[in-house]
Amino acid sequence: MLACLWLPVWASAQGGYGDALRNSTTFHDYLRAPALSSVELSPNGRWLAGVKLNHEGIFVFVSDLDNPQAQTVDLPFDESTFVNWVEWANDDWLITSVTVYGTFDGQIYTRAGLNYYTFSGFETMPIPVTRLYLVRRDGSGVQRVFEGVKSLEKRNLNLGRIVSFLPNEPDHFLVAATLRGDLDLFRVQVSTGAHERIGVGKKGTIGWYADIDGQPALRVDANRRGTRYTYYGRQDRPNGRTSWKRLKSVRADERAETIKQSTEFRPLSPGAVTGTYYVAARPEGEPTTGIHLYDFTTDTYVRPIRVDPDRDIEDALINPESYEYLGSRYYDDLLKTEFTDQAMQAHMDGLSTMFDAAVNIDWTDSSRDGKRWLLYASGPQEPGTYYVYDVENAHVRNYGSAFPNLSPYRLSPVEIVKYRARDGLEITGYLTMPKGVGDGVIPPVVVMPHGGPEMRDTITFDPLAQILAGNGYAVFQPNFRGSSGYGLEFADAGRRQWGKAMQHDIEDGFAHLIATGKADPSNACIFGYSYGGYAALAAATLTPDLYKCVIAASGPSDLLEMLDWVRDEDGSRSDEYEYWTRHIGDPRRDRDELAAHSPARLAQQVKAPVLMIHGHEDAVVPVEQSSLMVEALTEAGKSVEFVELYRSGHSHRMAGDQRKEMEAIIGFLDSHLTVDPQIWSFSD
């Protein structure tokens, strides 16, 4: 549920950051909800809808692109409502998802009130309730999906899980909802709200995928902690009954941007032939993740669609009506889009040239006839802007910024850093420099390895990196071995290398910055989340003289204890436990090696002050992992601070907790690194 509610929760964390950063922006500017979001093009291309937030409140808007002078239709929501997203059901009807936070005794929180909520007991704890609404384009005819259906409304906090908008059935869509203890699949009629159940889930079902005919194709079940997904494919029996065949078991992504997460198997879209699906997958024996056509009735790959031997291709562009493959998207530092149609590619190349190849151009939507595109541009110095592109006239119209208070003039640039690790492996990293740093000036550096570890960083708008740079810190993000995006061989190079080769790659990146005059060895800190948190603690214990301070958030500190916990939670024969023993090491065969690279067992070696941060409700890395480290450091007489976030999980932060976390991070860095607030100017 927290994963589904990430957007509204993030949007609520917009109060209390009043202190200006050294570049004259504020935390509030970076962490406020977007002023413009969920912008969608109608199927006929004439209308644009989305969510708008300003000083007057939050609105769903509809504008006429063919008549820019016409008044925009604004549908206001009250102060207790978060609008998560809006989507076109057809050219006349919109579907919007909204969330309200309340208590079991009926109290409803406003958005402002939620910002300042502090935990004082479960009876006052805000509970999110999400519902879908059907709205006519002109704002009339508003109705709530499943309104009055007690069997669903009383059993579901979240009734906003859309499975398919069924573009070939414009008066229907599919939604998942819990009924009798399991997550089932329902077909809903747009014009009347009538519904029927077409798929029955099992205990642990968390999602569905539909086929070309709008029927349930794949069912997704999760383990108890939500860290592993198992896919089941529909099997139609000769007697007319349906059964489900177990297909694949994969690790759940740690963050929402799945295009950045390499995967062995992820469904993307129905194929043009019944029983098939486009998937991002890495079949056994293949060196990279690519786009494949997959037959879920036989659990076989029909044929590769787009595969690159040197990089992972993780997302496809599919025509939602014909299910024709249009192209692929992948990250090569920046987002790259490849169309099979040369004319479309020529337009995309022209757009890239127009933006000086300095931003990610996300082709988010297209009209049915392909004559009008919706684009979203983002990058380090472009926090996010929507553009409408007229294909026939090659004309770009700036529709609006998602973050108008963030001036590109104040945002920090990112440069690509390529270096070789000590064994010769080439590594790519990204360095965010405070805007306007003068020649010969070396700002303090925060080395920030990513989590996963089988994930990657890219050149994008990163609010955390920008906040740190806005406060005077350079931020270095290395894609060490074990990261995704570079193929299986690169990912495999990180197996069983926790505290060893993966750690060396981070150290070698810092050494490269020092050698090239971009870092001062006496003025740097290491900071990371999840695996990055482990890497920070490993640096504190294995190379105690390397950094002046250490920040570790949500990371393991004792590898043996961590593996024991996963085994107890998921079982010694589970796919999840097998994954981690393959990735970290086997506690029976590798016990001494794992102990030698467990920071909590090496606390005596720490010299730098340490800040620990952990969400109390973390189901991926238990909070006890941070408690172990804090206890070991305290017993060893080391400097340690511990910020426990009582209403947050592994990677999701509730309102208030995020404010508390950011204040602790900046305060800790300012206490241990030297920043001259006059080292840059904005005269250029």
TrEMBL record:
It comes from the Bacteria. It holds the Pfam family Peptidase_S9. Residues 461-674 form the Peptidase S9 prolyl oligopeptidase catalytic domain. InterPro entries: AB_hydrolase_fold (IPR029058), Peptidase_S9_cat (IPR001375). Keywords: Hydrolase. This is Prolyl oligopeptidase family serine peptidase. It comes from Henriciella marina.
